[in-house]
Amino acid sequence: MSHYFPSVEDLVAEAFGDAASGELDALLPPPDPEDDPTARLVDFFALTSGPAWNDISRLWINARHLARHRPALAGRVADQEASWRERLSALLADGVEQGAFRTPDPVVTAQMILVVLDGLGADAGAEHEALPPAVRRMAISLAERELGLAPGALAPL
After folding, report:
1. Which residues have a Cβ under 8 Å from the Cβ of 125 and sit 6 or more positions away?
2. Of 27, 97, 105, 128, which one has the greatest count of Cβ atoms within 10 A?
3. Whole-model pTM?
4. Are 63 and 114 within 8 A, CB to CB?
C-alpha cells in the first residue's frame, strides 16, 4: 500500500474521490447531445432520494468533516464539489439552449439545487419516507420554480 499511497490521508482522499466520482457518473451521467434535458433531470431527482442517497450523503458529511484537518481530502472534496456543479450546470445550460428551461444563470440554479440536496442529505438520519412530502420535494420544487417549469414537471415517474 505504501508504494501507491505514502500516507493514510492520501489513501482516504483517493477512496473518497473514487466513490464520489462513481456516484456522480451514476446519478448524472455525462451528457449525450441526443439526451432530453428534462428527462435527465427527472432521472437525477428520482435517484437523489431514498436510502441509497442517504448512504452517499453520509459519506459526503463525513468527508467534509474530516477534510477540516486533512488537506489531501479537502482538495479532493473541493474537486468533487466542482465536478458536481459543472455537470449539473451543463445539464441546465443544455436545457436552456434547447428551450426546455428558463433561467438567467444555470450555474447559480445548479448551486441552489445542490445546496438543497446537501441540506436534505445532512438530515439523512431521518428516513426519507418520514419527511413531509413538501420537504421531500424541496429540491424538485426549487428546480421547477427556478427553471420556469410547471409544478410536477420534474416529478419522478
Report:
1. none
2. 27
3. 0.88
4. no
With beta carbons less than 8 A apart as the criterion, state whether 66 and 73 touch.
Answer: yes
Other residues' Cβ atoms within 10 Å of the Cβ of residue 32: 8
- In one-letter notation, the amino acid at residue 17 is G
Contact 5, 11 (CB under 8 A): yes
Give the residue ranges of DSSP H helices in 48-155.
51-67, 71-97, 106-122, 133-136, 138-146
In the block, residue with C-alpha cell 463525513? 62
- The residue written with cell numbers 432530453 in the block is 36
Q: Which residues contact residue 95 at a Cβ distance below 8 angstroms, ignoring those fewer than 6 apart?
A: 37, 38, 41, 101, 106, 147
The 10s digit of each residue's pLDDT in 18-66 is 999 998 898 899 888 788 999 999 999 988 876 667 777 888 889 999 9
Q: Is 36 exposed, middle or buried (0-12, 13-18, 19+ CB in 10 A)?
A: middle
